[in-house]
Write a structure and sequence with these properties.
The complex is a heterotrimer of chains A (360), B (362) and C (308). Chain B has 362 residues and is α/β, with parallel strands linked by helices. Helix content of chain B is 41%, strand content 15%. The two termini of chain B are 27 Å apart. Chain C has helices at 3-9, 14-45, 52-69, 74-100, 105-126, 155-177, 179-189, 191-196, 201-226, 231-247, 253-270, 283-295; strands spanning 145-148, 151-154. In chain C, strands 1-2 form a two-stranded antiparallel sheet.
Chain lengths: 360, 362, 308
Amino acid sequence: MSTTEQIASPPEQGKTVQAPSRFPRSYAIRAVVIIALLLFVVLALPSLLSLYYVDALTQVAVYSIVALGLGVLVGRLGLVSLGQAAVLAIGAWVAARLLFGTGLPYEVVLLASGIITMVLGTLVGLPALRMRGLYLALITLMLAGAITVVLASLNFPNGGHGFSGYNGALVHIPPIRRPGIATSDPAFFRYSVIVAAVMFVLVVAHLRTKPGRAWAAIRQSEPAALAAGVNTTLYKLWAFALVSFITGVAGGVLAGAVRYLYSIDFQTQDSITLLAVVLMGGAYSIWGAIVAALFLQLLPALLNSWGLSPDWLTILFGIGVLQVLTTAPRGVVEQMPKDLAKLGRLIARGFGRTTSKEVA
Amino acid sequence: MIQAYFDCVNANGGVNGHPLKLFVQLDQTQPAQITAAAHKLIQSDHVVAIDGVFDLLECTLDQAYWKQLGIFEMDAGIAPECWSTPNSAAVNMGPRYSSDGAVQYALNTVKAKKIVFDQSNVPGTGYIAGGPTALAKAAGVPIKTETDNVPINDANTVALRLVQDAGPDGSVVLNFTPPEALVILQAAQKLGLEDRVKSWGCSTPCNTDFLAKALGPKWNHKLFVNAELASPDDHNGPEMQQYEAILKKYGSSVAGGIGSFSQMGFLLGKFLTQALETVKGPYTMKSVNAAIEGIKDYKTELLCQPWTYGKVALHIPNNADYTTTPENGKMVTAQGCTEISNADPQIAQYRSAAKAAGINLG
Amino acid sequence: MHPLIHLALSLPTWQEEQPFLVTGLALGGVYALSGVGMIVLFRTTGVLNLSFGAVGAFGALISWQLINHNGMNQWLAYLACVLFGGVVTLAYGMVFGRVLAPRDPLVKTTATLGLTLILLGVMDLLWTSSGGASRSISLPTDNHGFLIGQVQVTTTDVIGLAFGIVITVATTVFLRYSKLGTAMRAMANDREITATLGVPVRRVEASAWFGCGIVAGIAGILLADMVALDATTLTFLVISSLAAALIARLSSVVVTFIAAIVIGVVDALVTPINGLTNYHDATPFVLAAIALLVLNRKRVISLSRQEF
């Protein structure tokens, strides 16, 4: 047996990454649709919705970046991380510290939190590179546990002094600063959608070029990739760096979105829920990341307004994980169970994408 | 419990013919959810009053919003801003003043030579510890403040550490939610540590018969719990009888049943109804909130002193407490109403502000 | 003063540390219970059952319900918990365990997270913790015990530790010497070849799942007493317990047990050290991370399904 089985397989291994040159027209149509959609979301959506849903959708934007990162690891490289929520927490911590401690522009802070998180994430990834499969998943869970404890003891910055920037005795805690052009909730929503779009473009650019092809090769068979002259260590590390970077940026957006950060809101088990929704949304699909974020952040808001307990959501995520893993051994998007596939197709049609390839 | 009270009011014809509707927002203590919930209540549900917030962070997050809208919220909160801003008044004392009460009992009545104050590592620990520290300092007694991450996986170790830190002449005072406090106290019991310190203390959340029952007789007059509200077993007064009657008839789904939390809900429902009765003309956000701010000298045997909202920069309307202790599976009163000491600078500040505003402090 | 000097100066004396050694053993027993329970199933089916804690918590809450609201005899209620653990785990094993049997261990393990989330959601619905509601289970053995130094050790702690040892020894002996055990070990290595050799694979798997569920139920009751009767706490206690299993590289039951005890003791001994006390919760994770990184220094290229 020469290949390692993956948690979620791509629809057509190796073909999709070379697709751009083959379907130029469909890509042009797709690009137009995506830009139109983005313009609608940024320009029209905030005025159509109440602040309640604008706030919820800001969270969706943040978590779509996180889900995208985890999707790259799980779907493109077959590496399962159970520590992404902790990486997000690091990004948020760094951003909050910089926003309180410096007068740097928000965009610079985002970049800095992305880079610092990237350095930390890559350092963690370095030794973890020797592992894969179950061991990697479990060691990321252990590291997430350790990070959670450290952040809980350190606390999130609240405008205090010193390294931690936390002062437990503070009353009238100042909110975390937002960019000057996006102080109101609707404006910040637009801002986070644009940041998310930039992160998506960054990831897609990677997938369509050399790193993406290398990842696909590694995913299919690491020895074969090695034999073909792919520097597997470099490209795996590259993936960790990219994913940590975008998750760190997402943390920076999160800090400005919620404006108050508390360590009790970052639990080790959040990474488990995150993996659940990414699997449900579809780890291989770029759109899957958005679906995952909608599951994670919009559904609770909806349930709440219907007066239903969020516990139902936990149950739904559990069922989703089992369904995805048992009925779609070759991959989520390709063999989604019928009901989910219908939903996926509806969503896909809503987004105006060409679905023929995915449902074939 | 507020719902139960409103159901009762509505069954009896509402307030001036208006039925009361309660919009409940659940959150998972996540800041984003809490602010979103506040926006939803005002924008989509068009509520006119914010009554009965039981949340760890709400006061911190929504204060500016309420202030901007001119809303005077009533709550049973935890965050420091529930007691330190013009737009929030609580029926409860909150963790800081309740911990003050427990420490004060250990200092004045038990005559502890050292205080070890331990609390869960939640937002605002430094603010909470500020009260007990000031009290101990004023009494010239050393104090050690500690925090523990929750949930606690190794209560034995925590209990052992607390006892070693306090020593035989010291007192251990806990500020935790009931499950965590119980876990620590039970661990102390299992390890046989009850008598290794002079006394144990606990802030209000420990004031439940459930805890007394789970702990057993070894803790009789060994554990002293600060109680912000009259003991649920005190059936003598008219308000307690009304509370129990409503809980019995309308409150079948009240989580936890009889206890401090539902007592707070009862008071929050009651205060709002009373305020609404005084409103002449239509109920608007303005008229209702003016009435809430006007709540004055409400006397109830559930509280040690009359409750007034009033126009002050900070509100600590509940600042005198009872002390209870377990006795054969029930919490009984160990000490009647006692004022929280002015040694806590916040309390002193409130009292002088209240006096200046002409508020009756009882 | 330099923080390290400060740390050295404030180190507790041996006199002070002694009682923590005793509580550390008890904590190690807690980790061992779930760590060993999980590794047993992994050795036999290749599934790391992460729902171990949730199953035990659910069972313990059922016992609590039966005792406090239905007035049931407590031993019968505990039996109900153990049976619940066995039945739920067996049902999962028969339905999902079977479907996923040919898949990678990572997939099988991730799937148990699905069961974990379902159980956790149902528990939070049925036994809400809002409004300050709290529950507890107190075994009669809590009231008996003996003194070690200055610290009382309850019979429950002893039972917890003994139960861990019994499972460790029993599984080791069983896997090594019994026919069924040999079949299980073979099966965890390669299910298809084992089946062609005439081993009744399904029946062997069923007994492994049921056994793991029974252990989860017993551990649930003990942990509810020793830690707390709280759905979230007990469900995710497995994360800390996993550390021990990881140090044993998911292969040796005996090493898992020893690692769990070491983690518990280190955790407890760190607690009275002033500068570290807030970080003592990180002990399992830090020890596991260090052990894994040291043990996995060799570069591994995945060639077959047995590699991770």
